[in-house]
Specification:
This protein is an alpha/beta fold and 272 residues long. It contains 9 helices and 14 strands. It has helices at residues 27-40, 60-73, 91-95, 124-136, 148-159, 183-190, 208-218, 241-254, 262-269, and strands at 6-9, 44-47, 49-50, 56-57, 78-81, 104-108, 112-115, 118-120, 140-145, 168-173, 198-203, 221-224, 231-233, 236-237. Bound molecules: (5S)-5-amino-3-OXO-hexanoic acid and zinc ion.
Length: 272
């Protein structure tokens, strides 16, 4: 079994300080949270950025400043900007951080009912457009799948040349409008991807740690962080993203699954 890659989704676009005061908005707060996650064992930082007041933005310059500040503290960490951004943003707005040529970026593989009137829109043409841009820019996509049908979409677009293999998936499970975080659904998703691909699992809310255990024992990888869950245990807020990562490391230790360094993660994912 490969070593375990831990991704920390430190910020997100929707979670607020009202949910957990440690959610980062400013550059300094993003650096603090990225470093706490890295020090605890994360090798990838999945990054959204905010204005200082918490408003989500895909502004290239804001990404540049935050990425440079994080890299100054932890130069070898893998930064994976979001191209999902926030509901309602245009495609070109969302793609801005890919102009900075990061090693990875997310590629969302379908449209989702986020609740109320919110629709997270990713048409087939959007996915093709993003896939093509990432190939042109040498960026490895992390394929965000919120449902089984999104795996099927990724496989179809791979056949048409918009996504290269080996593919790396993120099963985002338990989001409103997407697949549940039940073990039955995890088994369904992980059995539906090609043998040469890799995956990580991002369980939302109470699903975060049970699904982390499932991936640890199955040979997959794990994503945790405030974007997905703000609690360290039922009703207890996590003090930092690092505390969430530490818990994954403890669970991995129980199952004798060593943690990958960024260099090892690059090798597993075929980066660079
Ligand atoms: N904030 C969601 C609308 C991604 O990072 O690619 C999209 C999202 C997925 O978080
Ligand atoms: Zn995200």
């Amino acid at each position: 079994m490969e070593k375990l890659i831990i991704t920390a989704a430190i910020c997100g676009a929707e979670v607020l300080k009202e949910h957990n005061p440690a959610v980062p908005y400013t550059v300094e707060e993003c650096v603090r949270e990225a470093k706490s996650a890295y020090d605890a064992g994360a090798s990838i930082i999945h990054l959204h950025v905010r204005r200082d007041d918490g408003t989500p933005t895909q502004d290239k310059e804001r990404f540049r400043v935050v990425i440079e500040a994080i890299k100054k503290e932890i130069p070898d960490v893998i930064i994976q900007p979001s191209t999902g951004g926030a509901v309602g943003m245009t495609n070109d707005e969302r793609l801005q951080p890919t102009e900075l040529n990061p090693e990875m970026a997310t590629l969302d593989c379908g449209t989702l009912n986020f609740g109320g009137d919110d629709i997270f829109e990713n048409t087939e043409n959007t996915i093709k457009y993003f896939g093509k841009k990432m190939i042109e820019r040498g960026i490895k996509p992390e394929l965000e799948v919120f449902d089984k049908s999104m795996i099927d979409m990724a496989l179809r677009l791979h056949k048409k040349g918009f996504i290269q293999s080996p593919m790396h998936f993120d099963f985002v499970m338990g989001v409103n409008g997407g697949i549940t975080g039940e073990l039955r659904d995890f088994v369904f998703l992980r059995g539906s991807i090609p043998a040469d691909s890799t995956y990580t699992v991002a369980g939302i809310g109470r699903f975060e740690f049970p699904l982390a255990v499932a991936a640890i024992v199955d040979g997959g990888h794990v994503r945790v962080g405030f974007e997905d869950n703000v609690f360290i245990s039922k009703g207890v807020l996590a003090k930092s993203n690092g505390e969430l990562v530490e818990k994954v490391v403890r669970l991995a230790n129980e199952f004798q699954r060593p943690i990958a360094t960024p260099t090892e993660a690059r090798k597993i994912l075929g980066l660079g």
